[in-house]
Amino acid sequence: MDPERRSTWRRVATWSGLLVALLADGGPLGAQTSTPVDLQLVLAVDASASIDPPEFELQTRGLAEAFRDPEVQAALQAPGRHGIAVALMQWSGRFQQVVAVDWTLIDDAPSAEAFARRVETMGRRFQAETGIANALTFAIRLLEQNRFSGGRQVIDVSGDGPSNSGADPGPVRDAAVAARITINGLAIVNEIPAVRPYYADHVIGGPGAFLMVAKDFRDFTRAIRQKLLREIRSAPLAGREAPGPVLAKRG
Question: pTM of the prediction?
Answer without folding.
Answer: 0.81
